[in-house]
């Protein structure tokens, strides 16, 4: 076990402090993929179209100003936990919100930042297209399906 205290096992999302909350993110980059919503079923579809600001190391290129540059960029907050169902099934915040365990590949569990890359969880920019390179009307042609992990 990497962390001395497995806070994610004993605290709810609302009980976590800022450092704990931030460390819960595995850095997979999946939430930075563009999504399409079916208005009738409210089903969320992920695409291989990625936000233009995500770099090849899955870091946001405009983190401090992201809500100005990308108004639709979602800011996860504990009070919005009821809406976390749209997040990827592997997302730590969704897992904890649903009362599930963090997987072995999560950096907090493995103690290695790259363990989610080895597990094939992290998005790899080589397989993606930036959202300023594909017209929005064409995004539905890039819908993907996650392989369950
Ligand atoms: S999907 Fe969840 S765990 Fe992955 S980068 Fe986004 S917020 Fe972090
Ligand atoms: S602005 Fe940054 S955090 Fe928001 S979707 Fe784009 S890359 Fe991700």
Automatic annotation (TrEMBL):
<protein>
    <recommendedName>
        <fullName>UPF0260 protein YC6258_04135</fullName>
    </recommendedName>
</protein>
<dbReference type="InterPro" id="IPR005358">
    <property type="entry name" value="Puta_zinc/iron-chelating_dom"/>
</dbReference>
<dbReference type="InterPro" id="IPR008228">
    <property type="entry name" value="UCP006173"/>
</dbReference>
<dbReference type="Pfam" id="PF03692">
    <property type="entry name" value="CxxCxxCC"/>
</dbReference>
<comment type="similarity">
    <text>Belongs to the UPF0260 family.</text>
</comment>
């Amino acid at each position: 076990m990497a962390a001395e205290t497995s806070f994610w096992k004993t605290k709810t999302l609302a009980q976590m402090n800022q450092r704990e909350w931030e460390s819960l993110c595995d850095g997979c980059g999946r939430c930075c993929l563009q999504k399409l919503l079916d208005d009738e079923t409210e089903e969320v579809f992920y695409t291989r179209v990625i936000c233009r600001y995500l770099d090849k190391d899955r870091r946001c290129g405009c983190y401090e100003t992201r809500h100005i540059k990308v108004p639709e960029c979602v800011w996860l907050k504990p009070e919005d936990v009821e809406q976390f169902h749209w997040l990827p099934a592997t997302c730590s915040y969704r897992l904890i919100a649903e009362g599930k365990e963090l997987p072995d590949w999560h950096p907090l569990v493995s103690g290695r930042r790259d363990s989610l890359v080895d597990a094939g969880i992290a998005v790899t920019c080589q397989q993606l297209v930036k959202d300023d390179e594909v017209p929005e009307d064409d995004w539905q042609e890039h819908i993907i399906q996650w392989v369950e992990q």
